[in-house]
Amino acid sequence: MRRPGCFDKLSGLKSTSSCRLSQSESEQRCQIPGGKLCNGKGQCNCGVCICQVTEPGKYYGPLCECHEWVCETYGGEICAGTCHCGRCKCDNLKGNGLIHGKYCECDDRECIDEETGLMCTGHGMCYCGNCYCEAGWHGDKCELQCDIAPWEIKKKCTSPNGKICSNRGTCVCGECICHDVDPTGDWGDIHGDTCECDERNCKAAYDRYSDDFCSALRAAAAQLKRARNSNSCRLNSSRKMTVLTGKCECGRCTCFPPGESKIYGKLCECDDRQCEDNDGNVCNDQGTCSCGRCICKDGWFGKLCQHPRKCNMAEDESKSYCESADGVLCSGKGSCHCGKCICSPQEWYISGEFCECDDQDCDKYDGLICTGNGICNCGNCECWEGWTGHACEIWLGTEYP
């Protein structure tokens, strides 16, 4: 049995019975500034932290602030050197400091030219293992010299906006290497002699593998039906359809058809034809069209301002006109107003006098509604010319379109 105040050879600490610190003084010594006692990973014993030692996750340090996993990056990569109390110590055996970085990820030895032994051959600066060459030099280690004058190099790489390679590329001996190059080796979305063309400006949401330039999403069955004979539409199994309304030319959308003033906008996203009914009336003459949407006058509502807000019909009488054969009001997919069903605008594929038509409830082939070769009209596929079948899956012609 140990006597009070004697030294404990096992823990290296004095017994708590001989501690002369008050509780507040003891906790003050164990507390990380702005943090918990012993970092929440140990117990405070007379101003000294006794850290957790159980696996997994050993903690150590004066305040249990060190963890053997702290040096792991968010990407799951481990410190390339030696992890000590949450910091990477890089293995620079000769003390030259060539290996550095928060995770020792930079190895400037990659910049040393084997023939000359110089960093970037003496014609550039090394940053995290990559050479950035002086004007007139290029190559992985700045070992190649350009055969044209520096002023001519700058002139050739200057874009119309006065920036070198439009700030989207690197100038190498008078030629711009754009930052966005397709993995296959073809041009990516950034191209041009001075990288001045950026096709990303033609997309609402950038996706390098998508060809939906200058396009708008249509979400109305009426648009599907109007576009039935147009080859500018692509149908798929999703609830919406992408309609190409222009083409991208050096990062700018040219809307088509040419001369059609009703299609406009940065991405040709405004199509005022959507404000017209089948007879060509704009917003039922009860509103104005703004970027393909009707702004109705007071007293009118609906996508095409086709519904008057006033109704001289009693509620019971109104509902009687909205009941379908099975007695359900608007088939349970809309609301009744003045004896007429107004189908849910969120479910654009629902239509019909009693909202009984589901333009997604058509036969499919290869997972596509109407095989993508027609439109779904009230549960039945209406095929494009040359196609037939319940799902428009049969081609009647001799050659595919």
From TrEMBL:
GO cellular component entries: cell surface; extracellular region; focal adhesion; integrin complex
Sequence ranges assigned to domain Epidermal growth factor-like in this UniProt record: 117-142, 275-305, 362-392
Tagged with keyword Signal: yes
Residues in coiled coil: none
GO MF: integrin binding
GO biological process: cell adhesion mediated by integrin; cell migration; cell-cell adhesion; cell-matrix adhesion; integrin-mediated signaling pathway
Keyword Ubl conjugation listed: no
InterPro entries referenced in this protein's UniProt entry, alphabetically: EGF_extracell (IPR013111), Integrin_bsu (IPR015812), Integrin_I-EGF_CS (IPR057243)
Superkingdom per UniProt: Eukaryota
UniProt keyword list: Disulfide bond, EGF-like domain, Glycoprotein, Repeat, Signal
Matches recorded under PANTHER family: INTEGRIN BETA SUBUNIT, INTEGRIN BETA-LIKE PROTEIN 1
Protein name, UniProt field: Integrin subunit beta like 1
Gene source species: Pseudonaja textilis
Lineage: Eukaryota, Metazoa, Chordata, Craniata, Vertebrata
